[in-house]
Design a protein that fits this description.
The chain has 141 residues and is α+β, with helices and mostly antiparallel strands. A six-stranded mixed β-sheet has the order 1-2-3-6-5-4, covered by helices on one side.
Length: 141
């Protein structure tokens, strides 16, 4: 599925991995409702299924939440994610380099976000929204 391809793309980045302090057993990039809340910093994601924009492209929205005890650390993680996702939009057509991927991304654009401080947990949350347009690979590609 496209969301797994995109999340695996983020997980594969060694710089983001280092910023998050990830390990092979804990990537620190989890669905928005993790069973166990990871230790900060970490990233959660929520994939919103959208509409088919035309006969060939689907459009979805992804919400990424960077959670950290430190605002500077959260900004550094957010900035790395933005670099990675903006890179997808600068390429005419992104085909994930995995044999299991059935999708091509044609459009990946930042669509706003916000920052908040969680008083109960005493941490910062930076939220970003991205619009992703994609299609299934066809045999002739």
């Amino acid at each position: 599925m496209i969301e797994f391809d995109l999340i695996n793309y983020l997980k594969a980045d060694s710089t983001l991995d280092s910023l998050l302090g990830s390990s092979s057993s804990n990537s620190k990039i989890t669905p928005a409702t993790p069973r166990l809340e990871p230790t900060a910093p970490y990233v959660t994601y929520l994939w919103g299924v959208g509409d088919q924009t035309d006969e060939h492209l689907d459009e979805d929205r992804i919400q990424l939440n960077v959670i950290s005890d430190n605002m500077e650390e959260a900004k550094n993680i957010r900035n790395r994610i933005k670099v990675l996702l903006d890179k997808l939009d600068s390429i005419q057509e992104t085909t994930f380099n995995t044999s299991s991927s059935d999708y091509c991304i044609y459009y990946c654009r930042f669509d706003g976000g916000f920052a908040l401080f969680d008083e109960d947990r005493q941490n910062h949350q930076l939220t970003m929204f991205y619009i992703v347009k994609y299609s299934r690979k066809t045999k002739e590609r």
